[in-house]
Each structure stands twice: as structure tokens, then as C-alpha cells.
Amino acid sequence: MDLKQIISHCKEYGFIFQSSEIYDGLSAIYDYGPFGVELKNNIKAHWWKSMVQEHENIVGIDSAIFMHPSIWKASGHVDAFNDPLIDNKDSKKRYRADSLIEDELSKYQQKINKEIKKAEKRFGENFDLTTFQTTNPRILKYNDKIASIQSQLEHALKNNNMNSLKKIIDELEIRCPISGTSNWTDVRKFNLMFDTKMGAVSNDASKLYLRPETAQGIFVNFLNVQKSARKKIPFGIAQIGKAFRNEIVARQFIFRMREFEQMEMQFFVKPGDEIKWYDFWKDARMKWHKNLNLHLADYKFHDHANLAHYANAACDIEFRFPIGYKELEGIHSRTNYDLSQHQEFSNKKLSYFDAEINDSYLPYVVETSVGLDRLFLSILCGSLVEEQVKNDQRIVLKLPPHLAPVSVAILPLIKKDGLNDKARTVFNHLKSKFTCHYEEKDSIGKRYRRQDAIGTPLCVTIDHDTMHSEKVTLRNRDTMDQVHVSIDNLETVIKEKLGI
Ligand code: GAP
Asked: 13 by DSSP, 3-state: which?
């Protein structure tokens, strides 16, 4: 399904709404609806359980969104958390300079795809993709162009060189998609942090930032947590919480938001052991995503060639979203950069005494950082399918059962003849054991379709037979198979089918 279909599904079934919609919305800010919040809570719980509760050496915290402003100076966010911004003087539209260049790169990729399609038609069964890609002069020319632009772009971004970015835009004669002109301003740095004031006296000294990542709350609490939880290195600290970034380009639904949630874990290790642990977490996090067993899912690693000055290894786990392969999670070996910066700026020692070697050191850190909303989107994209059923079509959200917003829907066939009362009795019995949903409106067929679209793995139907047999019909979302189960045995069978 494309992103548009996913967005409209989210709205229709109460997963996600545009924030402040009745006031025409607020760009790149979203609200989670009744089923959205359940799914989001289940994703959080699943991450927390597997990252914190199932690891003896990882503990959690919940640090405040507001933090001392010097933290953001120390972390480098005040000086370097910038995106390159450019305006078109005719349309007055604002763009991220690097995104404009990347869009131009994708045009070359589209040209390559066109050439391949044409050749496939021309050569039919004799078409050999590899030979064509490595010998066709046009494709070679486009690939050279892509590689050359990419390397200039990476170089300019790494060196924070705004003039070089402008030069690439000029050389490629990139035009504004709205005005069609190349009447651009210079490229300027735009800091992504939102700021606000604390207290009654409003001056520069009272300026605070809304945190752009949750990680710094972990770094500044490192010794508090290590001592109070009595942890020995290697150990990790995890946190789930809101982060805020004033993104320039924010037009991809919940993929890039201005207010979002992160699930981060900083793993503190002995200097020298960081690459071993980086490889460990890289592997563990990829397995975690794959173990979700989404119906349609495709992941790959993107190893960073150009590392930030504080990192000695970094990669992204990318997911194939409808907008292409994009970053889902980042795994970074951040050396002891953050702890040493905080030690310097706070004037407080943050070193750890390692009894095994009878020496103190500043631990190195391997970080895993995933956006909760982006993970939510990947799970939706990997689960939402349109299926042909006999002469009909159905839309099914094939969510992993433990993440589904509703585990069991209880449906009386009709809302009379005592079926509804019986169904309510079943609902009241099950509601403390599973997330249940009672529904009696509309025909049973329509209700099944609605539960399919929400992702409910099991439906329990109470019909006239139930009244004397004490048996209900249990319907499976994916196979649509129906079996009769006695009410006495229902809880056990549901547990079995949900795999819990
Ligand atoms: N502490 C490291 C850090 O924040 P990052 O790569 O900037 O690293 C980590 O962000 C993850 O947070 C990303 O992989 C993505 O899943 C999520 N993320 C970042 N910016 C986001 C945004 N504007 N909207 C939604 N999710 C975002």
C-alpha cells in the first residue's frame, strides 16, 4: 500500500489523526486515536520487556524533558545540531538544501529504472540485468553522476560547508518544485532545537530547550544510576520519552515529526571493548526487528562511511517504507565523547572505578536509538494488506498478535434473543485477561471486516447455538477459519492461539 492509503486507514480506524485538525492542523504533529494508542503502548511494552526486563544488566529511567541548558552546549546540540536551509525567492518556499540535492539524485535513479524497463521490453527473455547495468553507457554515466554528487554532498555535510551545498545546487541547476525557478538564497544553518523560557523573568539566562533526543538524560544520570542500581560495567540504561525537533522538511506523515518519541539505550562498556559490543547490538537489534515477523517486511543495514567526529562506528537499520528504504533505528559507537563533555562542562567527575582492574576510566558508549513513531509506521506498513476473498476484497492489518490493539472481539450475531446478554457475560469474563472489544452494531460480516482492519487476531461470535450448546465460534483473522470452542475452555484456547 502507498503512504496515502496508510494515512487514510489510520484516520478511518482511529489510529492517528492530524493534530489540531479542526483548526486546519499543525504541520508534522500528530495525535494517536483509540486504537493507535493501544498499538503504541503495546510496542513500547514489547521494547521495554525485551530491552530492560529481559536483560539483567540493563535498567530503565524516565528523565525530564527540560534539562539544564548547559547540557545542550556540552552535547554539541547548540552549536552543531543544524540542518542546511535554503529559500526560493520567488515561491518563498523553504527547503532543506541536502533534501533538494537528494531529490535530484533520485531523478537520476528514476532515469536508470526507465532505461532498464525499456531494455527489458526490447530484449525479452534474453535480458540480463547485471550485464546491462555494468555495460550500458547511459546507465554508467548516470551512476557516475550519482556517485560524484553523493560524494560532494557527504563532504559538504561533514564539513558543515554551506557554500559547497549552494554550489552543488547551482551546478545541478536545481529548480524549486513550486515556482520552477532557481532563484535561491544562500544556504544557512538552521538549529533544530525548540526553545522556551522558564520562570517569570524572561531573559536569555532563563532559556531552556525541549530535548531533541532522550540520550542526554541518560548520560547526565550515568553515575546516579550506576551507583543506585549497583551495576558493574558492561551495563545499559534505557529510556522511552518525547523528543522535539524543528524539522525543516516534515511531509512524510509520522516518519518525520516535530514532536515524537524515542526508545534509546546507552550501553556503557570498558574502553577497547566498544566494537565488540557495537557488533553485538547491531546483530541483536536487527534480530529484534525481524522477530516481529511482519507479514511484509524488508530490512537492511546502512553502515555510515562518514562518521561524526565522536563516533568510531555507526549504522542505521533501514526499513523499506512506501517512500523507499529509510532509517528506522540508529546504532552508534559514541566513544566517551558525551561523558567527557559533561565532565568538562559540569566540572563533576563522571569516571567509573573498575574493581577488576583496580583503575578508573570514563566508559565508552554503544547506543541503540529507535523512533517509536517510525517503528509504529514500519509495523503498519509491514502489516496492512489488501486481499481478494472470493468475489470480495478485504483490508487486513496482520499485526503480530501481541501488538494488536484488540486481542479478542466479542460479537453477538444479533442484538436480541438474549445473544447480547450472553456475549456481555463472555466479555466480562475475558476482559481482565485480554484486551477485549465488545461490538453489536452492523451485520456480523461488516463487524468481521472492521476487526480485520483494526488487526484483531481473534473474534468470538455468540449465536443461537451458543444458548444451548455453551459453545462459541472462534474466528482467526489471517486464515478466516472458524472453530467451535466451549465457553469453559475459551480462555485456554485464546491464550494458545495468541501464543501467550
Ligand atoms: N541519540 C541518537 C539520536 O537521536 P538520531 O539518528 O537523530 O539519533 C534516532 O535519531 C532515531 O529517532 C531515528 O533512527 C528515528 O527512528 C527517530 N527520529 C529521529 N528524528 C525523528 C523525527 N523527526 N520524527 C520521527 N522520528 C525521528
From this structure: coil
Cβ of 95 less than 6 Å from ligand 1:
no
Domain that holds residue 247: 3-69+194-381
Q: Bridge partners of 244?
A: 259
Q: Is 215 in the pocket of ligand 1 (CB under 6 A)?
A: yes
Residue 353 and residue 206 share a domain: yes
371 lines ligand 1 (CB under 6 A): yes
Q: Is the CB of 374 under 6 A from ligand 1?
A: yes
Same domain, 280 and 426: no
Q: Is 217 a pocket residue for ligand 1 (Cβ < 6 Å)?
A: no
CA distance 63 to 57: 19
Residue 391 domain flag:
no
The pLDDT profile of the chain, 500 residues, written as one tens digit per residue, is 899 999 999 999 999 999 999 999 999 999 999 999 999 999 999 999 999 999 999 999 999 999 999 999 999 999 989 999 999 999 999 999 999 999 899 899 899 989 999 999 988 888 888 899 899 999 999 999 999 998 999 899 888 899 999 999 999 999 999 999 999 999 999 999 999 998 877 666 678 999 999 999 999 999 999 999 999 999 999 999 999 999 987 779 999 999 999 999 999 999 999 999 999 999 999 999 999 999 889 999 999 887 888 899 999 999 999 989 999 999 999 999 999 999 999 999 999 999 999 999 999 999 999 999 999 999 999 999 999 988 889 999 999 999 999 999 999 999 999 999 999 999 999 999 999 999 999 999 999 999 999 999 999 999 999 999 999 999 999 999 999 999 999 999 999 999 88
Query: What element of type H or E holds 103?
Result: helix 97-123
- Does the CB atom of residue 266 touch ligand 1 within 6 A? no
270 & 342 share domain:
yes
Ligand 1: distance of its center to the CA of 370 in Å?
6
Answer yes or no: are the C-beta atoms of 262 and 241 closer than 8 Å: yes
Judgement on whether residues 17 and 155 belong to the same structural domain of the protein: no
Choose the final residue of a domain: 327, 347, 381: 381
**Domain end among 136, 156, 188:** 188
One-letter amino acid at 27 equals S
Set of cell numbers at residue 316:
542505521
Q: Does 38 sit in the ligand 1 pocket, CB within 6 Å?
A: no
Residue type, 14: G
Q: What's the whole-model pTM score? A: 0.91
Within a domain: residue 375?
yes
Question: Using an 8 Å Cβ cutoff, are 474 and 496 in contact?
Answer: no
Which of 218, 220, 248, 327 has most ligand 1 atoms within 8 Å of its beta carbon, as the pocket-test mutant?
Answer: 327
What is each CA distance from 283 to 236, 278, 368, in whole angstroms? 16, 9, 11
Does ligand 1 come within 6 angstroms of the Cβ of 115?
no
332 CA from centroid of ligand 1 (Å): 12
Ligand 1 centroid vs 329 CA: distance in angstroms?
Answer: 7
